[in-house]
Amino acid sequence: MNASPASGRERPATPPPFWAAPAAELLERLGTGPQGLGVEEARRRLEAARQRRLHRARLAGWPALLARQFLNPIALLLSAAAILALFLGDRADGAVILSIVAVSGALGFWQERRATRAVEELLALVRTTARVRRDGLERDVAADEVVPGDLVLLSAGDTVPADGRLLASNGLFVDEAALTGEGFPAPKSEAPAPTEAPLAQRTSAIFLGTHVVSGSAVAVAAAVGRDTVFGAISDRLRVRPPETEFERGVRRFGNLLLEVTLLLVLGIFAFNVALRRPVLDSLLFALALAVGLTPQLLPAIVSVNLSHGARQMARSRVIVKRLSSIENFGSMEVLCCDKTGTLTEGVARVHSALSPTGEPSERVMFLAALNSAFEQGYQNPVDRAIREEAHPDLAGWRKIGELPYDFSRKRLSVLVAGPGETLLVTKGAVPNVLTACSTAEGPGGIAPLEAVRADVQARFEALSAEGLRALGVAWRSAEPGQPADPIQERDLTFAGFVVLHDPLKASVPDAVAELRRLGVSLKVITGDNRWIAATLGRQVGLRAEEVLTGSDLRRIPEPALVRRAAQVDLFAEVEPVQKERLILALRKGGQVVGFAGDGINDAAALHAADVGISVDQAADVAKEAADIVLLEKDLGVLAAGVREGRATFANTMKYVLMATSANFGNMFSMAGASLLLPFLPLLPSQILLMNLLTDLPEMAIAGDRVDEEMAARPQRWDVGSIRRFMVVFGLVSSVFDYLTFGVLLGPLRASEPLFRTGWFVESVVSATLIVLVVRSRHALVRSRPGRLLAWTSLAVAAAALAWPWLPGVERLGFQHLPLPFYGALGAIVAAYVLAAEAAKRWFYRRVDLGATRAR
């Protein structure tokens, strides 16, 4: 028998989603109210929601770093071979191989762990915050500490910290392109949206990861972390940051070297087996040779160099969010930036208020003050300057409504009621204000705009040519009780100009000249008009003969823009979407491009650039999109950062050149010796020990001095040049290896242990000392190495000389060396250093000649 509705319990209806629920019902469901959550309740909810939080991308933890050292193919092969040796009873070789693999891995882990900690400390300086209301008080909290039920206060430039429902809004526009693909900001209101509304039509909802373009609002957080729309997407798709040019270079170089090395090692193994040498010894020899020939410390060296560079840049007030961006920073050939705050002081000051005919006007100042005093949707330095400069009596005036600023209208209107009148007062870019005007105030009263338009335009251009920023001020009477509506922005009366001045920073001309000396060209992309841009360009030494405007960019097709963007230094009246288009055009032209921006509308361009640069005081969305954050907005800081980036890249390349040339020389020498001698020239454990000792000085390369010319121009990976360097200096090294063979096999009539000991000592001493030669293109006496590199190299060389005399080395296959060998060794190493200096002069002379011919 079925229960009737009256006698049975009805299933509760599914509550509507947060964007469709009435505000009061949603607040009750979330257990919150107009005063927001209590502090203790928010803490409890944060702890309960911790497992559902979205964490910002983190650097690898220590277990992953440790595992990374031993999970590469070479380390795995060596470990397997060592275990096989132990299983077959060759305990000495097996134990030594495993020990050396462990020591190499521990060294790499220690250095990378230091790098990771340094970057974590630097990242902690840059945090995204949200403003919430708790216990009736407004508080700033970390964005990832917002919990369901929090009342979130939003204004222009804020990143939305949660999915939520609007409770009150004032001209709110939100950029949701990351979720919806819609290029224009979405208007929002507190009116409920239909339950079945698609994402783009949920006008009452805000979403995590989007950002406020204009307006203000109060919203209640309904979902956070992985329970948001953004969180659902991130759970399905893990997006890796795009590979930088430096990372591509490291990967391609490593793959090429590994492929060549493995092919040669397989050949050496096959020849040794064909010569009827023990298979296990031949396998261990080939595998050890693979480690000895491959720059397996390259990832650790890169991490050490980049973290060292990050710490050095932090001392200059430059915070690196993404380590690999340091190389792009150093390789940067073009820097694009806005003018305000970067080239100028960024502090707007009122210069004057003028009528359309150019006379000082108190009425224009009063109208501008009305507009600035009552606007709330777009906090900016212009309105602050007007409020600080003008002190009119606004008693009796009250705000009725507001049409907030947005980047398409480029104007802001407030509807105010005062003694005996209701006015709509508009302020904004002069051309945009004039399009909404039909009349203008003049000496004889109000006249048609067309009668004075030419004079207004001429005065606007004259003010701009002086480097002043002129804003248009207009008004119209409104009906009492009439709400603010966009349709009212028409038939306005142009009252005049409020003129502002943002002085050029005294340090900018020198900083621009320094960037030019570093091979970095500056391009200014600004929303200001062409005349201000041209004046600024002349002041800082840019090419000001031609200025491309936003309207010009709309007419230029993509292929032509690639060429034109490279030829022009000044871009004015540019819309936000055009900044990104310019950055992409410069990149298509083959240049490494940096973009410095801090505004709401800079996020897309920051993301599109090779290296995005922002400041700690920037809008949240700009800081999130940037690779590098400046704690001080100064071009001089940028120039210092470029130098540090180039020094970091130069020291990384030093390791690459040292490792590849030494490894190729050892490979060539060992391959020949293994085929000519009736025994293996070195035991596997001896190869690994030699490799470990010769790598120790190179771990200190991060602090080495860098020659001036290596930091003077942008540098890029050049695998062809690396290959030529490897062959030239590898063959020079092999010549002296074979000379050492001749001394050992000839006058000294060396046995197997003596031969191995002599070559081991010669290899380590020559490899460590030659580091001091090949680290610079200059002669050793002209370019001094860093103190740590020099002392480490000398210490390793001394240890190698003393090695045969240490107790217990006989167990590793070594023996004492006769004293005559040390005399021969001194002559061989001295001749090797002189030959390397001569080869270096010849090599770089050909490099410079080739570069000259290419130009």
Apparent shape: elongated
Ranges with pLDDT <50 over ≥5 residues?
Answer: 1-12, 236-242
For this structure, the quaternary state is single chain
Measured between the Cα atoms of the first and last residue, the distance is 95 Å
- Protein structure class: alpha/beta
What share of residues is helical? 40-55%
Topology (elements, then pairings):
Blueprint lengths: L22 H7 L9 H10 L13 H9 L2 H15 L3 H33 L5 E6 L2 E6 L8 E5 L7 E13 L1 H4 L5 E2 L17 E2 L4 E13 L5 H8 L8 H30 L4 H15 L4 H18 L2 E3 L4 H7 L2 E4 L11 E6 L7 H13 L6 H9 L8 E6 L7 E8 L2 E9 H5 L2 E6 L2 E4 H17 L3 E9 L14 E10 L6 H10 L3 E5 L4 H11 L6 E3 H6 L2 H10 L2 E3 L3 H13 L4 E4 L6 H6 L2 E5 L4 H6 L2 E3 L4 H42 L7 H15 L9 H5 L6 H27 L6 H23 L12 H16 L16 H36 L1
Helix pairs in contact: 3-5, 4-5, 4-9, 5-10, 5-24, 8-9, 8-23, 9-24, 10-23, 11-23, 12-13, 15-17, 19-20, 23-26, 23-27, 24-27, 24-28, 26-27, 26-29, 27-28, 27-29
